[in-house]
Amino acid sequence: MLDALVIGAGPVGLACALEIQRRGLRVVIVEKGALVNSIIGYPTNMEFFSTPELLEIGGYPFPTSQYKPLREDALDYYQRVARAEKLELRLHERVLSLSGEQGSFTATTGLGEIQARNVVVATGFYDLPNLLNVPGEDLPHVSHYYKEPYQHAAQPVVVIGAKNSAAKAALQLTRAGASVTLLVRGPEISPSVKYWIRPDLLNRIAEGRITAHFNACVTAIHPDAVDITTPNGPLTVPARFVYALTGYHPDETLLGALGIEPDPNDVARAPLFDPTTQETTQPGVYVAGTVCGGRATSRWFIENGRHHAQLIAAHLAR
Ligand SMILES: Cc1cc2nc3c(=O)[nH]c(=O)nc-3n(C[C@H](O)[C@H](O)[C@H](O)COP(=O)(O)OP(=O)(O)OC[C@H]3O[C@@H](n4cnc5c(N)ncnc54)[C@H](O)[C@@H]3O)c2cc1C
């Protein structure tokens, strides 16, 4: 029987496992994809907003040649830490449900069952996009994940969204020669867009290199165009590819199947947990990292979520 099962091999799941293991407890990480699967899905060469020391786990220095690490640096770093700590991993194995109680949990996975005294849920938020729920959203030229711009040179591309991911994608696509239309549901580019990205985007819009429609609502997506309504009436915008970068949310069905209750007083439906230990209302089940914020996915990120690991490990080793 394991002392702890950690679900999710993201930066925070890895931090939890290594802190638990360092306290002499036996821990396994089960991950439905690859090691640090969410970051593998981020855009190629994406630059983190955080400086490297704020992304470090387990006290391992994160050396980078630049001020901000790239996606590739982070993949290399977290995978090296997992190797250095000899963390026990079960990859490409999805957890489906959890039964039992503290001291004798059974996690059912796509490949079998795992027994553990305690369970740490660090499943993040990156698997389920916030859908537009419009006709055509399931067409093959529509994606909720942006990777890189090069396949879109000399093509009309629509980017939907007003936050960092949409802003960065619109800028990159424009610089790679795509003809970009940015569709923003609200009246402006989100003030939360990083201070070094927002003016760049506003200036590209002002000079006409990026067409932006504000207070725009997408009503349908076609193979070569997007229908929108605007304060000036309906419009059809040409698009050979559509990036709907409207955010993501945690898997609430999974959280329910793991016995984790949402806070009824929180509009974000964040799990109920004790902030001094990260333990949920189900004794022996802990939450860590981004999943702790529910639908408020920017409440917890690597910088602050990595500290959940010490709280949980200290509580397990008491
Ligand atoms: C483009 C982008 C840039 C970002 N930049 C920064 C930054 O500069 N600084 C910062 O601090 N944060 C940043 N973030 C946020 C940060 O990446 C996330 O907060 C971070 O990944 C959270 O780590 P985590 O371990 O909680 O979750 P994740 O990294 O999402 O890991 C969760 C893991 O759980 C796995 N999983 C899910 N369900 C199951 C299941 N049923 N069974 C088994 N495994 C499962 C997933 O496959 C995944 O590997 C950024 C996010 C994005 C999208």
UniProtKB/TrEMBL annotation:
InterPro entries: Bdr, FAD/NAD-bd_sf, Metab_Enz_Cyan_OpOx_G3PDH. Keywords: Oxidoreductase. Pfam families: Pyr_redox_3. NCBIfam families: Bthiol_YpdA. It comes from the Bacteria. This is YpdA family putative bacillithiol disulfide reductase. Gene3D superfamilies: FAD/NAD(P)-binding domain.
